[in-house]
Amino acid sequence: MADIVHPEGRRRVVIEEVTPQVDGGRFPVKRTVGETVVVEADAFADGHDAVRCVLRFRKEDAPGWTEAPMQAVGNDRWRGEFTVTEMGEYRYTVAAWVDRFLTWRGDLERREDPEDIGLALKIGAALVEAAADRAPSQAAALRRCAEAMRDDRDPLHGRRLALDEELGALVARFPDRRFETIFDRELRVTVDRERARFGAWYEMFPRSCVSGGQDHGDFRSCEEQLAYIAGMGFDVLYLPPIHPVGLVNRKGRNNTLTAGPDDPGSPWAVGAAAGGHKAVHPQLGTLEDFRRFMERAREHGLEIALDVAFQCAPDHPYVKAHPRWFRWRPDGSVQYAENPPKKYQDIYPFDFETEDWGGVWEELKDIVRFWLREGVRIFRVDNPHTKPFGLWESLIAEVKRDCPEAIFLSEAFTRPKVMLRLAKLGFTQSYTYFAWRNTRRELEAYFTELSRGACREYFRPNLWPNTPDILTEYLQFGGRPAFMARLVLAATLGASYGIYGPAFELMESAPREPGSEEYLDSEKYEIRRWDLDRPDSLKDFIARVNRVRRENAALQFDHSLRFHAVDNEALICYSKADLALSNIVLVVVNLDPHHVQSGWIELPPELAGKEGERPYQVHDLLSGARYLWQGRRNFVQIDPRAAPAHVFRVRWRVRTERDFDYFM
Amino acid sequence: MADIVHPEGRRRVVIEEVTPQVDGGRFPVKRTVGETVVVEADAFADGHDAVRCVLRFRKEDAPGWTEAPMQAVGNDRWRGEFTVTEMGEYRYTVAAWVDRFLTWRGDLERREDPEDIGLALKIGAALVEAAADRAPSQAAALRRCAEAMRDDRDPLHGRRLALDEELGALVARFPDRRFETIFDRELRVTVDRERARFGAWYEMFPRSCVSGGQDHGDFRSCEEQLAYIAGMGFDVLYLPPIHPVGLVNRKGRNNTLTAGPDDPGSPWAVGAAAGGHKAVHPQLGTLEDFRRFMERAREHGLEIALDVAFQCAPDHPYVKAHPRWFRWRPDGSVQYAENPPKKYQDIYPFDFETEDWGGVWEELKDIVRFWLREGVRIFRVDNPHTKPFGLWESLIAEVKRDCPEAIFLSEAFTRPKVMLRLAKLGFTQSYTYFAWRNTRRELEAYFTELSRGACREYFRPNLWPNTPDILTEYLQFGGRPAFMARLVLAATLGASYGIYGPAFELMESAPREPGSEEYLDSEKYEIRRWDLDRPDSLKDFIARVNRVRRENAALQFDHSLRFHAVDNEALICYSKADLALSNIVLVVVNLDPHHVQSGWIELPPELAGKEGERPYQVHDLLSGARYLWQGRRNFVQIDPRAAPAHVFRVRWRVRTERDFDYFM
Prior knowledge:
Distance between the termini of chain A: 83 Å
Number of strands of chain A: 29
Largest interface: A-B, 65 and 65 residues
Oligomer: homodimer
């Protein structure tokens, strides 16, 4: 029975349950530059010997590990952290060992019998000498200590020598790690730029940017709209596909089967005689125009995001050039997209089960490479859940290896586990179910899951109250207060959020038919002329909200989100704080767009102080109003016709002279 | 960027979160023969295609996998199960694939347009033909179906043909699994015999079985006590170490430093001139006597468990023969066990950091091998947490590979994670913190963790209300009701439990000193003469409890444990059921040994039926009393001086004629 080989029986420490860890290390966790990774692990040995534990981390391409000490936090759990300072991939793991000197030192502290102490000092002297052998630079000093310990005739004096803090620290610098245990997996962190975590997005159909007598907007006319968008405080301008639109089976207005001669078709029906995914729609301009537009946008502080829609119109050049990439039917036609009995005859999906799947993947990756070369760094990916997981994992890994600033937003409105899987395998951000979470219970449950659940390590939500496909019932029936409330919720629950405009700020709310979430006269199928100067536009309100986001670090992170009790179900209350707790934002939203609602909110002691302490100020950053609050329970009343939300900055330093000016 | 190789892009299914799984498959889960392993997994593909999922399992040495279908249970989760029928190790994993025929069939059901249906039938016919190519035995039948589908001029009739259940089942038998995904780990199950899950243990010092004028009991005198122990209904008789006891530094009565000439010493100070861990204490008898004793015990339905205490008395033969196996101090003495300022001079621990650690391990394994050859199959391991984890993992694996019926009970009264680690790496059962869980909250929290937490898959509790080291305050001060209550709790909360007797049934309750959990005049250091016939002995009560355990399968499993609400904190109420739910036991214990306590207990609907349904009977298997209850809330009142607990069998079939006799 003796043939199960054990390589080194003196390796006595066990390391378990290292966190954060996604699927046993199969996938990386995500951070942005400047964030810290707090790592915990269970580490323990048999018996009662002292254990030491260190965190090991490195930028993927660094020559060696950096180590940071881990502290015992009770119940054999250890905690350490490191800060990620560069984009790219980091690795981390944990090492731990039985520390004989530390064990000996702990025992010595508790020894009482002078004879025992005398003997213990001799043992300890040997341990110090062993440390000297490992510490060339400190060998002489250590040997002197060892000698003093060994020779001391007064055990109590010798013990004082041996327990000296400096000696302890010195020996600790040269531990005996021959039998250390290293956690058996190297875990990974993908480090993105800040925009991956924090940003306000604006989606716009460029063809609707019609200027003067134009029938079809182009990149030049879009340039004129940049000041308007930047003025609202957005960071990312996302354009639906800018490629030639298919003519064959083109859809007409309101998704009708036959297009009129002037109908522009859906931009997601990509490809026509003029080109495919690497071409620009001729009516939008040339590639040169696009480059210039990107440059102009950059001058306005706006970064362009392109749509990646891996599907083809029937007249996409791929269909003739690569018939093997599509599925053919017995009647000699190509299988269009369908979900029986629904048909999407203007869309041919790729056949990812073709023998030439490798060719398909390579070409799709080449599309992304093409736009990377053009300077695009943000991609909003259309329906990634209908393409193989492996494609995304390899595509994103390859892109990010060369271009770590690339950002991929997954538009996977699908089942939860599929949505999460896409995030695990590399998508930087993801659309969410936010649009359909309207009641307090729904919002609290969902955002608690996103901010506290296991997915927080890899799933970054990007919250959209509307999209060209999603006009929710709440917006259809709630009027102006509903738009304002959903904007505040999106912009404060999510460090990343976006709107589809100008439909949003102009409060477009008519559905194609009752019960539908499609817009009436949807821009997906026609060009809309928006009156951006309409006096009821929400553009100023949006600008204010985005300014509050930029000025309050609390709103630029998601993990600190906490919900607070309110005794009225129509009100929701939550707070966020920045990492240093120097910026605390408290949000209260009236979810009922029709009625004034009021209630008592109850804050935890870390926000409100203990009962009876001095009052604090809550400053509504939207209205400018300031309130003095005291204690944990405070009253709020919100009239949705004025503004359906408070976004309070919590200010603590009330009644100290030096802040007097500050509150004026 | 194209050099990240993907082996097969058409493998579209993802398998995640397979359960049960201990530390990502690093350790096996545990079952006993006849139990089932319910396996769940998340399995899904991109898009909307139908997925099929199977569980694969095999006895480790079986030539190939057996497969069992898994059923979708919602949210992309699948469930299947297999029964383990033999001791040893099983493996399991999960496979899943996109099923093109099933996808096609689902689409066909929803198609409406006759032209579409006609085309779909041709596509389906090709899929059926492809199945025929994979199904030599059914090829002809399948081809006929394909032909009929292809040729049908009436699409609606053709659809009926194609949707035929038999055809669906036939094609399903021959799926196209070329691109299936197999979960990337093979998970393991250790299958033990029933005794690993269910058994009542009795610990006894054989040297205290003094018969007539004996000074020191022996295996012969122990034989006389077997009927008494078996009469109480125990299954396992566990003996503290039966080896020669060290003379050097032997402890005297009540753990005094100097032993008198007649003091027998602690049996855990193993080894003397007469031999070490492979020898029998001469005063207990010979190895031959031990064999005979084991045989007699077997005749009484009792299995002998031996103590494995890997440590040495100073005069153990190992100390001279293998000085390298111990740690030497600068004064030329061997380091004894200590926890400063406490010293255990009668015990030399092995130095597991010796250069010859391999030699130590091999010899310790050889000790276990020795007793295996003598027929011992149950080992209670003393303080396994003070020996290297790797030793136990390899020792237990090696033993169980050749002797899967071996059972190892871990006596690791130590920190929670160490305790759990020992269970993970192979210990069959473990002592627990039960002895120190006395209040309802403590008991509910702890046993909820053990029966519902992640550890339930590998940690089998064995509950001991007392041991030679543990006389709890509850027993010291609670009198007879305390002993009865703790017995009922141990015997019903734990399918495995044990007592240290006769101290338990004779309600020995005096501590060595106030505040100590050590027994006064502990048998660890002296021979006790017990009066087994004392009229107040609990032996009959114990016998009744053990009979109830044997007669009620509900009490032979731990995972079904559920606690129920009671409006009095002094009462605890819980139920257990067998796998078939044909045996339901409901326990109510008065935790207050001093006062009558009463309260309303509230049962869940699955126990009590919905409000207003017919009454049911609860039959107290301890007292024989029967009560008719109705609805969810029922009143109980327990006088601890009579019996501090009800152990009810819940009987459902009230008021049906055929059960009339049954209730007489």
